[in-house]
Amino acid sequence: MLSPASDKLVLKERGLMKRIIITLFTVLMLLSTSSGCLNLNLKGIGHSSGDSTPFAYSAFKNIENYPNLQEAVNQESYLYIPKAQTYVIDNPIVIDRSKPIYIHGIDRLGTRLSPKNPDQPLFLVKRATTINLAGFSLNPPAGKKNYSPVIFQNTAPIEFELQDMSTNGNQMQVSAPGVFRFQGVVMNTTCGTASSAILVNHPQADVILVGGNSYDAGCTATQANPLGEYHHIWQKTGRLRVFDVGFQNNTGEGDIKIETGSALGIHQIAYVRSEGTGGHLDGTLPSEVLNVPSSGSAVNVVLVGVSLQPTTAANRTISMIASYNAAGTLYLAGNSSALGADYLVKGNAHQGTIVALGNYIASDKALSAVSAKTLIYASNMYYYCQQNNCIGDYSKTPFLRTLPMGADKSYQNISSANASLAVIPALEIPMPLTRPIMDVTLAGMTNIKDAGAKGDGVTDDTTAIQSALDSNQHVYFPPGTYRITKTLTFNHTNPGGWIAGSGAAVSVIRRDFSQMGGTWSTQAMAYSTVQGLTFQTAPFSAFDTTPIAAPNFDIEFTTGTVPASQENMIYNCVFDGGFSALAIGNSTTTMGSENMIINSVFKNAYRGFSAGSYNALNNLIYNGTFDKLAIMIGYGGTSGSGGTFGVFYGNATNISNSNFELMNSVDNTYVFHRLKSDAPYVFQRGYTSARFSLYFESSDFAPNPSLWNRQPIFSNAATALIFARSSLPGKITLGAPAAANTIVKIKSVFDDWSAYAPTSGESTYLSIDP
Length: 770
Description:
Blueprint: E1 2-4, H1 24-31, E2 61-62, H2 69-75, E3 78-81, E4 86-89, E5 93-96, E6 101-105, E7 112-115, E8 123-127, E9 130-134, E10 137-138, E11 150-152, E12 158-163, E13 172-174, E14 178-183, E15 186-188, E16 198-210, E17 213-215, E18 233-243, E19 246-248, E20 254-258, E21 267-270, E22 273-274, E23 288-298, E24 301-304, E25 307-308, E26 320-333, E27 336-337, E28 343-357, E29 360-363, E30 369-378, E31 381-384, E32 411-413, H3 416-419, E33 446-447, E34 456-460, H4 462-471, E35 474-477, E36 480-484, E37 488-489, E38 498-501, E39 507-511, E40 520-522, E41 529-531, E42 534-536, E43 553-555, E44 569-571, E45 574-576, E46 580-584, E47 596-611, E48 619-634, E49 645-662, E50 669-677, E51 681-686, E52 692-697, E53 700-701, E54 713-715, E55 719-724, E56 727-728, E57 732-734, E58 742-746, E59 749-750, E60 764-768
Parallel strand pairs: 2-3, 3-6, 4-7, 5-8, 6-9, 7-10, 8-11, 9-12, 12-14, 13-16, 14-16, 15-17, 16-18, 17-19, 18-20, 18-21, 19-22, 20-23, 21-24, 22-25, 23-26, 24-26, 26-28, 27-29, 28-30, 29-31, 32-60, 33-35, 34-36, 35-38, 36-39, 37-40, 38-41, 39-42, 40-43, 41-44, 42-45, 43-46, 44-47, 45-47, ...
Antiparallel strand pairs: 1-4
């Protein structure tokens, strides 16, 4: 039985008129948008069975209109949980159906489902096509170790999706066939309450994580587990792909443990940031992003753009990007550890192959501490320094490298015998999951027009909107143009929130252009969802005598202690105008990490997206459109240190200057997958001497002929650039005389690669075209 904060349900009257799923008028209005939202696909991406995501939230039924959740699941396909509170569930809820089931909540952390029976899961899956859970938390029973809120007993493959969720304190045990998607999921293993946040243990399970964060909170040195068998993600059988996930405070050795190979494909880890071991504060265990134990079978893994920055100084001398002890092939490209993990890869892989290209490690240890049947090391940058004493000190012995042709640091080719082995496999990143259109005021939400806003484009709606945001963090903007004359603020110290419009084409928040100010500002916004809105202010123009200087949509964190500003999910929005169309951490150096901006548009600004401080880390543009900008993405802050960002699927047009501005003081990584751009420069200049890596996968650069001067890349920073299956015309200019750089080209098309030459003795150029 379902109840708020108890095991007794307060029944509401039933018999409410069923809502129409969506009117033809609304469909046509939303799908005929000219605002440019890229690939607004209303199907659940990746549903091989053809199940469709419901068009709109009017199709969802309030669970409180049913006597219990089991009956609601039996009767309906689309269910909505309306309150930010704890619901105690008569469990398990059995899912045994031929139709899809979608259950969405109002608040990612505030809405919580807890089991009445601690010995049973919340959900028991016997048969399903698609299961999509979004916008609420799965709460474990107190004191229960390795509690799995969902148990899978299905024998036929399913598609299971956790989206914008929290699974804190649980272990998600994936032990059945199917495709399992985790997008924007917060996972806290609570100091050993769960030995891993996700356990993958079925040979036909294909598990994909994009975004989100896993951490082990509350541990002290006295609580360290002597066995070290704790990992954020633990694969025993099945396939694992992990993209854009942050890891902190692992109690054991490896953030990710992979024990076996998979017939479904190679394991892939890309654009992952780790802060290393936190549970063993005495430094007895190393920090490892990847741990592959001893195995005589082929365990094939790709690590691309992974960053390890151990926060515990004591364990840096025994830390590494990967520990590999199996047969098969381990590929490492564009990975970084500038805070002093001693080894790139360590282990005993006597039957295996290690391929390492364009990685960066600051260390005083030997270049390699791995035994393997085949070693292919090329164009890696090793900064030799005394441990814990090298940060910011570049006066010691310069970079050392292992090159395929001895000491020669000029243009290189991998030998023909190893060329095919050295090709880094292509990343397989799916398109994002999306959210249904908000076409109705859901229970628990404030309709902004009921709060007094007119939405007629003429009335000043500032006061009405601000009052609604101050009183409720779940607000709906029906179709309309909402004129404002002051920056709206959305500040709260309790996590969660849902700000939704009916689609960016029809729900517009517009600030008077003459005011040259932003539309939206936050000082403490975390774990919130924003969707279906256009935020419009004055466009930037270099020809104006006083062009707009304010960011349009600004996420900051300058006050308070929790929950900072992080882990927000933004869907199907348009950021139109401003100096930066969307900015994170421009005026502060506190949290602004792991936000995801999905199926959204950045246009008519100087800079499309800005990561403005060293704590604005691993933010992701996931299927984005950039148009009429000077800079696509870059640094726009005042702190003197920039954050990191990635793009998975992006299209940039009418970019007048460059794709990227880099101001990086954290020596981190950037990954770009399937990015297309017409900018005249890939990046025009680096603002820092910090070392960092950029990995371009299946990306195409076709500079606008009217702007192009045949120098699409220029940097004065020490940088590793890896291009895989990408195209780039023009000449590359890299490196000031004191800088060290490396460029690796893997099956990519450059119009005149042979003419490139390093600008200093510490630069290398490596071509792999088998």
